[in-house]
Amino acid sequence: MNPIERLELFSTRASELADTRLIRRDFRPGMTIRYERMSGTVFETSQPVEGDLRSFLLTFRKFVSNDEPVYLNRIYNLCRRCFTSQELKGYLIQSRAAWKDALHGRGFSIVFDKGRVTPEEVLNLWINGWYFHDDEEKLRRLKLLIPEQRIFARWLFLDFIAEATRQIFYVENVITVALREGLVDPACAES
After folding, report:
1. CA distances (Å), 6 to each of 44, 109, 116, 168, in order?
2. Domain assignment of residue 79, yes or no
3. Do residues 17 and 60 touch, judged by C-beta distance below 8 A?
4. How far apart are CA 160 and CA 152, in angstroms?
5. What pLDDT is attached to residue 114?
6. Which residues, including other chains, have CB under 8 Å from residue 97's CB and lie 6 or more apart?
7. Is residue 35 included in any domain, yes or no?
């Protein structure tokens, strides 16, 4: 696949993601923690419909899996090499910083087994231990979480998905402009 074909594939997959019921229903994960005098600490999370989430994840995981042609880090690198517009490259530098913040936590994390767990690790646990694969170690780690940790881990997972999706759509918009305006060097080599 040449660079332009890969960028077009990214746009196609982003459009597929935008067309999922989860996104069309305005997916916005949230969590509320409050203290009630009689019942103690109460955690409430907004959860998507499970079938909608599973359907969404079929396409979403292509953007976060190393071996996929539309893996977001690979697309950032491709755009950096092949875009001829410094302005568009600058937009993607900002997007990549937001992506890295989302991967490593934006000020919120959980501690499990005396170590901080990042959203990237939580995504790995849910995708490979629960949704798409039966990785015993990852499933075991999810099951070992106490209820409060599991609530936070689930929220981190959903919050990461929401932020990553924003960056996917942002990058898709930049790619659309670059392709439309002829700002992609067709001779650039992909490494």
Report:
1. 41, 34, 35, 14
2. yes
3. yes
4. 12
5. 67
6. none
7. yes
The H-or-E segment that residue 95 falls in is helix 86-104
97 falls within a domain: yes
Helix, strand, coil in percent for the chain, rounding step 5:
65, 10, 25
Q: How far is it, in rounded angstroms, from Cα 163 to Cα 183?
A: 27
41-50: pLDDT as tens digits: 777 777 888 8
Position with higher pLDDT, 106 vs 51: 51
Q: Are 88 and 79 in contact (CB under 8 A)?
A: yes
CB count within 10 Å of CB 168 equals 25
Q: What digits encode the pLDDT tens for the residues 62-93?
A: 999 999 999 999 999 999 999 999 999 999 99
pLDDT score, position 104: 81
Total count of domains within the chain? 1
Domain that holds residue 67: 3-180
119-178 pLDDT, tens digit per residue, is 888 888 888 888 888 888 888 887 777 677 777 888 888 888 989 999 999 999 999 999
Residue 21 lies in a domain: yes
How far apart are alpha carbons 72 and 82 in whole angstroms?
A: 15
Packing angle, helices 119-126 and 86-104, rounded to 10: 70
Using the structure block, give the residue that is written with the tokens 């005098």. 37
Q: Are 7 and 78 in contact (CB under 8 A)?
A: yes
